[in-house]
Each structure stands twice: as structure tokens, then as C-alpha cells.
Amino acid sequence: MNAAPLIAVRHLAKSFGKQRVLEDIALEVPAGSTTVILGPSGCGKTVLLKHIIGLLKPDAGEVIVEGEDIVPMAQRQIDQVRRKFGMVFQASALFDSMTVGENVAFPQREHAPLPEVELRHRVEERLEHVGLSGVFDKFPSDLSGGMKKRVALARALMLDPKIVLYDEPTTGLDPITTDSVDEMIMTAKKKFGVTSVVISHDIGSAFKVADQLAVLHQGRFVAIGAPEAVRHSDHPFVKSFFALWFSKGVATS
Predict the structure, then answer these.
(1) Which of 9, 98, 183, 229 measures 20 to 30 Å from 28, CA to CA?
(2) How many CB atoms lie within 10 A of CB 76?
(3) Sign of dihedral through CA atoms 77, 89, 6, 10?
(4) What Å distances lie between residue 30 and 27, 52, 180, 195, 217, CA to CA?
(5) 28 vs 103: CA distance, rounded Å
(6) How far apart are the first and last CA of the chain?
(7) 54 alpha carbon, distance to own chain's centre
(8) How does pLDDT run across 60-105, given as a tens digit for each residue?
């Protein structure tokens, strides 16, 4: 018997005014896997991510995290569930006035304070785990785009989350840096055993990191499955979305 999914979204719907953004969304995210939600800008990917972490309430449907529906929860309960999540934002969202060390330490200080010596050791350990050493006292302005993403991941991992959410992690990055971020996502899964949900419109990156792809179009999933199965979907939008990319003969592994 297959284990229950770590995250399950069922019959989710969301509108803003008269605009229907999500319609009858269903998705299961297996523990220890990387699921990439793929689709063009404006298709509802970020709105879905905000439902998964409890920042938005749906008009209908369920968001199950480790067997618990978070939709009817009070704010205090949702805050506890969020401790299971780490978040890597699109622009890294580092505090420019803080050093790298202070940025990474921030969630620990806020939620589970430690003695300073122990905290510094933990921060340096997390930085080393994401391939960064010797940057504790630097500022974000001293770092490259790829390094900032790694700092953001180190911060996301500080409270040992079970789930890491990535919001468009490769947007605006050059190919070499994009490849570095892809490796970072895969390494986090292998080293820390985290379950990852990535939202992206980067097809090449998606095929590199995903165990499962879910293609979102006009507020609905039009294909979900293993990357190669989705690649060969007969759905017209999926075929057109992938056509240019694969016509270039770009490798996906």
C-alpha cells in the first residue's frame, strides 16, 4: 500500500472578485519527492503555493498537510503547521541591512532562540551544507545571485522543515547560475530528505529537478505525472507549451 501523501490538495477553488483563479485543483505530493508546478506567468501558481502554506483560504476544497486539513484551522494552528515549511522566495528576500549570518539566524531567533555560540555554530553548519563557507559576516550585496539563493535555502532549513517551497527559484538567472540552483534543490532533497514543491515556468529546470510535474493552465491542472509522461501528454496546451523548448533539442537530464 502506498504511503499517504505529505501534502494533498483536493477540489480547491479560488476567485478574486469575478476572476476565477483556481478551479477544482487536485494534487498529491509524496514525501521525499520534488514536485514542480509548471506553467506560464499569471496562471495561478503562486496563488496555489499561498494556499499550501496557509496564507490564503480557498473558496472551496481542502489542503491536507500530514493528514490535517489546514483550511478550517485558526491562525494559531496554521502558525504551528507552518513550522513544517521552509520557503525560498523568488528574489531570495534577504534583509539587506543584515549580514548573511544574521539573515540565516533570523527564523531561529524568532521561533526557537538559542545561546549565541550554539546559534552561530548552527548557522555556519547550514551555510556549509549549501556549499557556502566563510560568508557569515558578508552582506547580501557582496554575493552573486546564486549565492543569495543558497543563503535563502540555508535560512529555510534552519528549523529543520519537512517541506521546502521554492517560488520561481531560477527567474532572471543566467544559465550557469540556474544550473547551480537546480543542483542546490536536488542536493537539499538528498542531504536533508525534504519534500520540495517548486513553482516555475522554466521548462529545462523543471525537467532536471522534478520527480513529478504538474502543468497549470487557466486555473486547472491539465497534466500531472512523471516528467517524461507529461512531456508526451496529448493535451493541446501542454504540447504547445513544450513544443518550442523541445524543438531546440535541449536536453532534459
Answers:
(1) 183
(2) 7
(3) positive
(4) 10, 14, 25, 8, 22
(5) 32
(6) 30
(7) 14
(8) 999 999 999 999 999 999 999 999 999 888 777 888 999 999 999 9
Q: Locate 62 and state its grid cell.
A: 481542502
Give the chain as a 3 state SS string: CCCCCCEEEEEEEEEECCEEEEEEEEEEECCCCEEEEECCCCCCHHHHHHHHCCCCCCCEEEEEECCEECCCCCHHHHHHHHCCEEEECCCCCCCCCCCHHHHHHHHHHHHCCCCHHHHHHHHHHHHHHCCCCCCCCCCHHHCCHHHHHHHHHHHHCCCCCCEEEEECCCCCCCHHHHHHHHHHHHHHHHHHCCEEEEEECCHHHHHHHCCEEEEEECCEEEEEECHHHHHCCCCHHHHHHHHHHHHCCCCCC
How far, CA to CA in Å, does 107 sit from each of 25, 41, 124? 31, 30, 15
| pTM score | 0.88
Are the CB atoms for 7 and 163 separated by under 8 Å?
A: yes
Angstrom CA distances, 217 to 23, 41, 201, 214, stand at: 10, 10, 11, 10
Do residues 40 and 201 make contact, with C-beta atoms less than 8 angstroms apart? yes
The CA–CA distances, whole Å, from 64 to 57, 69, 210 equal: 13, 4, 21
pLDDT tens sequence across 127-140: 988 888 889 999 99
